[in-house]
Automatic annotation (TrEMBL):
GO terms for molecular function: argininosuccinate lyase activity. SUPFAM superfamilies: L-aspartase-like (SSF48557). This is Fumarate lyase N-terminal domain-containing protein. One of its GO terms (cellular component) is cytosol. GO terms for biological process: L-arginine biosynthetic process via ornithine. It comes from marine sediment metagenome. InterPro entries: Argininosuccinate_lyase (IPR009049), Fumarase/histidase_N (IPR024083), Fumarate_lyase_fam (IPR000362), Fumarate_lyase_N (IPR022761), L-Aspartase-like (IPR008948). Residues 2-115 form the Fumarate lyase N-terminal domain.
Length: 128
């Protein structure tokens, strides 16, 4: 097929039938791409957030299981002072939390409706 628009329409017709061919009625093709990209980004961000939170939970579980374990703390590749393994693991939890916060903000910013912003003026007739 010619371009992304035609591929999307063909897939939609395959899934929902002939009505899928009306996808572009009173809609800009550029709006459709903006919407599709946002939907893809929302799904990818949501999946990433789930995985980050699962990883954080695994770190908490591991930290709780190793509360009393002492390990060397390093600075400049040199053993510096004793630290708790649990504290070391929880430091990674906090680093990941910054990523969770950033992805959550991205999700919030992505969760907007881009339709009807067409390239020039929109498809709604002007009424005075």
């Amino acid at each position: 097929l010619e371009d992304i628009h035609m591929n999307i329409e063909a897939r939609l017709i395959e899934k929902v039938g002939e009505v899928g061919g009306k996808l572009h009625t009173a809609r800009s093709r550029n709006d459709q791409v903006a919407l599709d990209l946002r939907l893809f980004a929302k799904e990818a961000i949501s999946e990433t957030l789930v995985k980050l939170r699962q990883f954080q939970q695994a770190l908490i579980t591991l930290a709780e299981a190793n509360k009393g374990v002492v390990m060397p703390g390093y600075t400049h590749l040199q053993s510096a002072q004793p630290i708790l393994l649990a504290h070391h693991l929880l430091a990674y939890f906090e680093m990941l939390q910054r990523d969770v916060d950033r992805f959550s903000d991205c999700l919030r910013r992505t969760d907007v409706m881009p339709l009807a912003n067409v390239i020039i003026s929109g498809s709604v007739p002007y009424c005075s």
